[in-house]
User: Fold this.
Amino acid sequence: MGDELEDWKRYERLVARLMADQLSTEFCVTPNASVLGRITGIPRQIDVLIEARHDTDNSRRIIVDAKRRKRKIDVKEVESFRGMMEDVGATHGYLVCPNGHTAAAEKRAQSAVSIRLLPLDRLESFDPRTWPRCVRLGCKYGRVFWDGYPEISLGLVAPDGTPTRMTFVHSVGKCDRCRKFHVSCATCRQILYVPEDDDSDIGHQCACRLPWFWLASIEEDERGARSAELHLAIGVSEVRTVNRRSLSTA
Assistant:
């Protein structure tokens, strides 16, 4: 398949992009996610996963199923999706399709599931290959999906002694294939890969070499569900969690 994406995968990425653009910054978005089923105990593939960005909190998980179909969504697909929601502990779900749904599907969806229309013609001007390439060695065709833009405000002193403040903007996100965290600095344009499963990792700085660094870790909630988390460490006292994604292993 190489660098090409089938139309159904492009449709999934488009849905993820639109979700990330419309959601509050309190939430982060992961395309092509994988979450461990609480009932089945097996990894469940999720087209688009929406989670709380800043805390180890899985109580507000939302999942999205992008169905690029020529026919309408029927009641069986809603029932299957609700089963998926129950298995991964999702509080709400979105079924996104280009051709609508049956009346029975709408009744079965009730308040837990929203069915949304996204016409196929929106794909005409959408190409995920314009996204930056994943910089992790071994990930050949992955593209980085940006879903957060943390800012850092830094107090500086000008050459004439005048105090001033500068704001530095970054993009944070994940690879759409290997799902690993990436950070891009808007100042030096460097893209960093930040692993969450390397105990020897002491953090990453971009070429600006300013007093902050990026580090990732694996955390657990009170139920034992694990998530990878990307942190921004500023100086020696401030640490912010700026991105998350649930893991498919216990």
The chain has two domains: 7-128, 130-246. The chain is about 15% helix and 40% strand. The first strand starts at residue 27 and ends at 36. Residues 79 and 108 are 7 Å apart (CA to CA).
